[in-house]
Backbone:
């Protein structure tokens, strides 16, 4: 049976949050430095107010509202530009321990699946660079080639990741998950880690680390 290795992206494969990293680049690139900085400040303020209630679903929706009316093709090109000009120029952009594990899975013939609340503009160039075969991510609503600012369900955060994984694997999901691997760095990755036979944790979040140690999960250093 084909094996799969599911990797969270932000904080696991990447050392930073791709969504925040990209939107700062996008705003300055699209609107210019002055207006772009103003929009970044406005989004940060709205995000901070939403964060007080810590509703990850609302936070994710708030993020994609920023792209309302932007052409999908334009975002795809800006994503490539962001990755080439910013991400690849940062020698600390990727977590080496997670990347080494990903390469090990590839050498063993496993299918690599990126699972993230981020979206195509960020994840497509990352997947291409890492030679990852599949992406499970936030599906944005597109009308007449432009993003509406809305997202489709399930959102690939928390429990939504498990829904996306099971849908991706189809009828044999439970059997395949039992032999699969998953890697995450945050307590929000816990649902994804719990449904596979081989969970691995990037040591970052104290709460997740405590949970992993109690269950003798692998810690990827």
Residues:
């Amino acid at each position: 049976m084909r094996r799969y290795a599911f990797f969270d992206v932000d904080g696991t494969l990447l050392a930073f949050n791709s969504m925040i990293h990209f939107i700062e680049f996008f705003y300055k690139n699209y609107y210019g430095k002055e207006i772009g900085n103003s929009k970044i400040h406005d989004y940060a303020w709205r995000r901070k107010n939403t964060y007080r209630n810590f509703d990850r679903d609302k936070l994710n929706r708030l993020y994609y509202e920023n792209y309302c009316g932007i052409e999908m093709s334009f975002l795809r090109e800006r994503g490539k530009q962001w990755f080439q000009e910013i991400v690849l120029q940062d020698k600390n952009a990727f977590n080496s321990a997670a990347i080494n594990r990903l390469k090990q899975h590839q050498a063993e013939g496993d299918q690599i699946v990126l699972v993230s609340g981020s979206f195509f503009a960020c994840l497509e160039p990352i997947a291409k660079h890492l030679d990852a075969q599949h992406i499970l991510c936030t599906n944005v609503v597109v009308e007449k080639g432009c993003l509406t600012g809305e997202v489709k369900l399930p959102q690939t955060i928390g429990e939504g990741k498990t829904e996306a994984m099971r849908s991706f694997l189809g009828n044999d999901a439970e059997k395949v998950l039992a032999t699969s691997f998953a890697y995450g760095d945050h307590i929000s990755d816990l649902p994804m880690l719990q449904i596979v036979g081989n969970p691995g944790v990037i040591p970052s979040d104290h709460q997740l680390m405590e949970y992993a140690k109690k269950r003798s999960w692998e810690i990827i250093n």
About this structure: DSSP finds ten helices and eight strands in the chain.
